[in-house]
Amino acid sequence: IHKNSIPKGGASAGVYTKDKDSTNQWLCIISCCQDSSVCDSAFFHKNTCYLIKCNLTYPGGCDAVTKNSAKYNDSYYINVRDVVYQQCDLLNNNGCIEGEECRYSSEDGAPRCVCKSGYIQDQLGNCVALADPALADPVSSTGECEYPLDNTCHQNEECYLPPHTHSRVGTCRCKAGYHRDGTNTCVASDSLGKNNNTTTTPFPPTTKAAVDGSVVVCEYGLDSCGEHQECYLPKNSLKRSGICVCVEGYVMGTDNQCILNASTTPVPKTTTPEVIQTTPKVTKLSVSAGNTVELQLPKDETVLTCFVLEKENPGEKFQYEWSLITSPEGAEIGKMVGKNTDKLTISNLIAGLYTFKIEVTGVNRVGEAYVNVTVLPPARQNSPPVAVINPKEQVVKLPNSAILDGSDSSDDDKIVKYLWEEMSGPLQDHTLQDDRNMLTLKDLVPGYYVFKLTVTDSDGATNSTVANVTVIKETDYPPKADAGSDVVIHLPQDSVILYGNSSTDDKGIKSYEWIKSAEDKLTADMTGTTSPYLHLSKLQVGDYTFTLKVTDTTDQVSTATVHLFVKPDVNTPPVAVTAGQLTKIIPLKGLVLDGRNSTDDKKIDSYSWVQTGGTPTLKILNSDTALATAVGDITPGEYKFTLTVADQEKLKSSQDLTIVVKELPNKAPVSNAGGDRIVTLPVILVEIDGSKSMDDKKIVRYSWERDDKSLAAGDVLNGSDHGAVLQLVNLVAGKYIFRLTVFDAEGLSSSDTANLHVKEDPHKKDLLELTLDTNLEEFTVEDKENLRSQLSSMLPKSQNGDVSAEIQTLHKSPSSL
């Protein structure tokens, strides 16, 4: 997918078909994939899908070409199918469709299908008859251009912009002295197309010369062909362009030279009998139709004059024939007078581009020229602008601002200037004036204003209108003082703060003032008397009255009064607070006694906890604090405690706390013998762990017993068969079964079984028993290591590694006991 791209051949790339149902590039691609008969490439441009059937005679015409112009930013070009290009047949027109004929290209000299004479290519690539007015003066493949930047136009084209237009987008047209040929290319109007044996001048597709794909074009009566060749022109042809063919009796050789036919029978030449064998030489006349003519409606008439550089020979009379080549749509009402004279009068013209051709014929002399006539639309008749202000009337209450909108003012072309003026209003230090389409009114003083808007259009015409604005002074409400609620305090507290920060005003409070009533004979220290907060200290017993005075920004005043009552010191007894009654479940480490919720109007000075009921008597830890703990032999029953609190003046208060201790029903213990184990001899000590047995209270006894199916070998160490961990020594290989039974304090029990598998020593066959003639009580570790080293040195070497001796056990010989 090529973005910002178009087909290289433009409108000549092939036949374009619009697909109105494909609204994006993806649908355009799918549409092209579905119908190969009308589409080889998809082109999505300006939200329109074009299906392109490529011109197979235009090599590379369907290749993508990237464009830098902004107009192609959203263009996508996609080569959906591979295209095999081939040249068309110059002789029989093979490879071309209706309205086309095979000609040499002006770009690369190769044969290509282009529009035949009397046809022209529209912007969809179709060759249609010039009689169709919609196709007059075809533009380049891009069509539009930006004036004065004509870089989007093709060679010999210029960007045409109608006068008095306000747009910079024009169309590409041929420069003066050029006209469009059938390939939509601008060529010189006086050119006959001859250029090194290739030409852009079309020749009829009905010629019958086949010269192995290499054809030499000639102009009948002017050019001479090669040796043994003549210029062939089909009968009834209106063109003077033909092709060189071999004369009768000659055939075309491989080197494109006519050679004598070796056959004894003359070979007919390859042209039809209509070939004109001998013709007089025709010379070219230098003809001019003058410069490009431009006129503007309502003038719709002009005269075209033909000039011939050569003079008429004696007895010769030039024949003139004017013809219309292109014209704008609707030009059928135009008139031509003097079509067969050197001066052509044309009238009833409409806006657009006309192309006229003049052909001059003499005796064996001929020439032609083209001239363009551009008819511009009538100059625009200016209408003055219309000034509009919204709103025409409005009332503004300060401090709000206002806006006068003049953007709805209109003109038939364009408004280029706005001017706001204050026509009348209250006296103030500045004048309101602006040159934008909207006027913002701010910092106004109360009064009645009249504002005038004058608009000027592109032709200098003006128009004015006025708007009225009434500015009303803002209402200022007085402040509202708020000194807060009355206050009561008791000594020894002798200071307080009075709050006036709840006072309000719609514009803002400028000042605060606190005033002590003159009737108060009591004294006090006052600070912050000009702030919202009055700080009072060193107060005396009695009643005070204070007045708060607030003033707003316009000096409006409001007052409020607050009373302060200072009372003598009055002490109230404390209040002891406990949980009242609690229930606990044994086992317990202690009973928590909590009196932290006790209160006093000042401060609790002391706490005292005592046990007043229940057995046994418990010891109370931290009994002189709010949080105490009773510890001891806590058994099920009811315990009573009393909390007494006292303040600094020894006023007291007491409250009881009852704690009911309960015991849950006893559950049997759960025995856990530790699970099965496997050990391998030699092993000295084996332990079977039953310490994970559990009870809701406490296990008081363990009992390990052998099962009847267990081996009897092995000894129990340290009476461990009555402990949590059973210790065994002197075991032999085999299976042992032990049952663990556990008991709680109330005699409830449970049992669990553990299997012990003792495996034989895998090195039993390698064991030796040595009897040493020494006293075991004197045999040291050093002696043991020396004995091991001596035994290791006596062992034979092994290919699998080192061989060593290990001493497992040492014991006295039974014979020595």
UniProtKB/TrEMBL annotation:
<dbReference type="Pfam" id="PF22352">
    <property type="entry name" value="K319L-like_PKD"/>
</dbReference>
<keyword id="KW-1003">Cell membrane</keyword>
<keyword id="KW-1133">Transmembrane helix</keyword>
<dbReference type="InterPro" id="IPR035986">
    <property type="entry name" value="PKD_dom_sf"/>
</dbReference>
<dbReference type="GO" id="GO:0005886">
    <property type="term" value="C:plasma membrane"/>
</dbReference>
<dbReference type="InterPro" id="IPR022409">
    <property type="entry name" value="PKD/Chitinase_dom"/>
</dbReference>
<protein>
    <recommendedName>
        <fullName>EGF-like domain-containing protein</fullName>
    </recommendedName>
</protein>
<keyword id="KW-0812">Transmembrane</keyword>
<dbReference type="GO" id="GO:0031410">
    <property type="term" value="C:cytoplasmic vesicle"/>
</dbReference>
<dbReference type="GO" id="GO:0001764">
    <property type="term" value="P:neuron migration"/>
</dbReference>
<dbReference type="InterPro" id="IPR013783">
    <property type="entry name" value="Ig-like_fold"/>
</dbReference>
<dbReference type="InterPro" id="IPR029865">
    <property type="entry name" value="KIAA0319-like"/>
</dbReference>
<keyword id="KW-0325">Glycoprotein</keyword>
<feature type="domain" description="EGF-like">
    <location>
        <begin position="172"/>
        <end position="186"/>
    </location>
</feature>
<dbReference type="InterPro" id="IPR000742">
    <property type="entry name" value="EGF"/>
</dbReference>
<keyword id="KW-0677">Repeat</keyword>
<feature type="domain" description="EGF-like">
    <location>
        <begin position="113"/>
        <end position="127"/>
    </location>
</feature>
<keyword id="KW-0472">Membrane</keyword>
